[in-house]
Amino acid sequence: MTRFEQIEQKIQSWEQIAATADAWRAAGNRIVFTNGCFDILHYGHLHYLSAARDLGERLVVGLNSAASVSRLKGPHRPINDELTRTHLLAALEVIDAVVVFEDDTPLELIRLVRPDILVKGGDWLPEQIVGSDLVLAAGGQVRSLPFVQGYSTTNIEQKIKGM
Prior knowledge:
single chain; five-stranded parallel beta sheet
């Protein structure tokens, strides 16, 4: 299998991730889940995703679809298309699976994956994180990981525009 095929294998459908998560769980792996737009990948993302992966044996990233990003961030986003965003994330060693979701929140994907640990960035209090009630009710953990200050897609977008 080529390296690119290995990357593409990490990009999973909802049906695939359900089976994959079950297999990981059966093998005793703790599954960490996070989600986001990950429009322009930057240092802050890498730091955050690495810290998330350190919490368990497997990291699943729910990726907002292009339509979802546009609804959340405005008609000028996403900057990078869905194909690019999924493949860039899947190419990262710390990520075990990438799954696109169409809704504005990953609630149904979290319900499907049933992660042991649910994480978001430091601007979210654990009780505000979508799906926290499901994960906590199943005996899991919910964590808010610190941000690396000065790194955001919005800042990069402003810099590109010369603002």
